[in-house]
């Protein structure tokens, strides 16, 4: 039979999977891509600065301070390159061209370290390792693996690193220094001088001291920033407190006018004969609105008054109370000369609104309070005068002649802030400042009639 005469086929090796060459090719491509990515990251790492890109002391107030790091680095470069070339050529027998290349590679990056210390360190550590390999091949009685120039340049770059980089980065740099020094030191001849321990110790000290200085400077900067913020918040709180105080004081003035409106509206039907019924109802509506306004003002006053502020029962003072204020201040040890308009001119004060009257008194009170706090014993002159449209107040004191009065408690305690707010309220102006002889001057100008300033 044909089937019996057919010889059996020899055994064949199983065919390789068609995907094996493709798998090797893919693995090779992945490895190549990984190497490229690593080189790209390394290049970006060296070309881009870590952290701040600006040079060291770039924000110093003076130009010579900003140039100082660059000048110092340039001095080290100018000194290390020729010394390195001479030492490698004469003591280690290195070729002049190679010695020059090593000297430039080990010292020139110090200029880069002023602004990019981490990238400069990467270049220097590679150059130092190459220089150490060259020095290890020299004879005995020579410092190895690190020369003195390498130690000096490396300590300088470590100082620059410590002023810019984080603790983790500095620790990694020092560990790299330790490992490289120990590995290269293992190939040192028994007769050569070991410099690996010296570099480890000095680099560690430089990194530690620089980090401590940088952290101390950062803490001081944060403290200054916090103090600035606190001062701004304190000034803002003082302004708000003074505005609330002014609003509480003006409550009495406005409440008085509202009370007058209520009384006039309630009594109008009895004082005026022959009023029509519509007019009587209108006066009644006016009186009701005035009472409701008084109630709302009392509620507002309760909101403006803090928990530790007692209710004020005394009437708000005015210019008529100035002699009493001056008398109390004189008893406290402040000599005062008060100058006021004559009686024939005082009648013009009828044009002064209650708000202006109160503000004028408070300005003088605060000025005398500042004299007692900052210029105790200084002779003070208070001048109150009038022109056609304004009430003029001038308070001038000389230099202090005594010690501050610890019992002084007059005024609001907010000084010029309170004065400016009160003057702004009535639409006036105030000018305050020191005098050449050490005294102080406060000059306020307040309108005699109410002035619509358009400001709240």
From TrEMBL:
InterPro entries hit by this protein: HATPase_C_sf, HATPase_dom, Sensor_HK_TwoCompSys, Sig_transdc_His_kin_sub3_dim/P
Keyword NAD recorded: no
Pfam short name (any one): HisKA_3
Enzyme class: transferase
Segments of this protein annotated with the region Disordered: 1-26
Alphabetical UniProt keywords: ATP-binding, Kinase, Membrane, Nucleotide-binding, Phosphoprotein, Transferase, Transmembrane, Transmembrane helix, Two-component regulatory system
Transmembrane segments: 67-88, 94-113, 118-138, 144-163, 170-187, 193-213
Record-linked SUPFAM superfamilies: ATPase domain of HSP90 chaperone/DNA topoisomerase II/histidine kinase
Bias type Basic and acidic residues, positions: 9-25
Protein name per Swiss-Prot or TrEMBL: histidine kinase
Domain Histidine kinase/HSP90-like ATPase: 359-449
Enzyme Commission number(s) from the entry: 2.7.13.3
Gene Ontology molecular-function annotations: kinase activity
Cross-referenced PANTHER family: NITRATE/NITRITE SENSOR PROTEIN NARX-RELATED, NITRATE_NITRITE SENSOR PROTEIN NARQ
Reaction(s) the record says it catalyses: ATP + protein L-histidine = ADP + protein N-phospho-L-histidine
Ranges where the Signal transduction histidine kinase subgroup 3 dimerisation and phosphoacceptor domain occurs: 242-307
């Amino acid at each position: 039979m044909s089937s019996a005469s057919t010889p059996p086929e020899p055994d064949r090796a199983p065919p390789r999977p068609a995907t094996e060459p493709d798998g090797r090719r893919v693995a090779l491509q992945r490895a190549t891509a990984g190497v490229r990515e690593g080189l790209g990251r390394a290049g970006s790492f060296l070309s881009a600065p870590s952290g701040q890109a600006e040079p060291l002391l770039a924000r110093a107030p003076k130009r010579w301070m900003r140039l100082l790091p660059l000048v110092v680095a340039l001095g080290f470069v100018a000194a290390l390159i020729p010394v390195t070339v001479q030492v490698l050529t004469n003591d280690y027998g290195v070729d002049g061209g190679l010695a020059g290349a090593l000297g430039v590679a080990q010292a020139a990056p110090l200029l880069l370290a002023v602004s990019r210390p981490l990238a400069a360190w990467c270049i220097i550590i590679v150059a130092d390792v190459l220089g150490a390999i060259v020095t290890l091949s020299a004879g005995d009685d020579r410092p190895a693996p690190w020369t003195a120039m390498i130690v000096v340049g490396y300590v300088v770059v470590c100082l620059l690193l410590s002023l810019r980089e984080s603790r983790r980065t500095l620790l990694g740099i020092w560990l790299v220094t330790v490992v490289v020094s120990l590995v290269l030191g293992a190939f040192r001849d028994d007769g050569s001088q070991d410099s690996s321990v010296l570099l480890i110790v000095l680099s560690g000290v430089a990194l530690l001291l620089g980090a401590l200085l940088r952290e101390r400077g950062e803490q001081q900067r944060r403290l200054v920033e916090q103090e600035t913020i606190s001062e701004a918040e304190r000034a803002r709180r003082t302004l708000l407190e003074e505005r609330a105080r002014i609003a509480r004081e003006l409550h009495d003035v406005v409440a008085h006018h509202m009370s007058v409106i209520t009384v006039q509206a309630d009594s109008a039907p009895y004082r005026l004969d022959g009023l029509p019924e519509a007019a009587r109802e209108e006066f009644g509506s006016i009186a009701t609105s005035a009472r409701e306004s008084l109630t709302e003002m009392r509620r507002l006053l309760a909101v403006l008054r803090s928990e530790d502020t007692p209710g004020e029962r005394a009437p708000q003072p005015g210019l008529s109370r100035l002699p009493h204020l001056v008398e109390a201040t004189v008893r406290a040890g402040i000599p005062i000369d008060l100058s006021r308009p004559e009686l024939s001119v005082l009648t013009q004060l009828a044009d002064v609104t209650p708000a202006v009257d109160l503000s004028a008194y408070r300005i003088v009170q605060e000025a005398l309070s500042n004299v007692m706090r900052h210029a105790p014993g200084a002779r003070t002159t208070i001048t109150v005068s009038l022109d056609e449209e304004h009430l003029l107040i001038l308070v001038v004191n000389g230099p202090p002649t005594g010690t501050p009065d610890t019992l002084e408690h007059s005024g609001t305690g907010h000084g010029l802030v309170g004065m400016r707010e009160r003057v702004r309220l009535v639409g006036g102006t105030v000018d305050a400042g020191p005098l050449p002889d050490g005294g102080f001057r406060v000059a306020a100008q307040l309108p005699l009639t109410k002035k619509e300033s358009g400001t709240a």
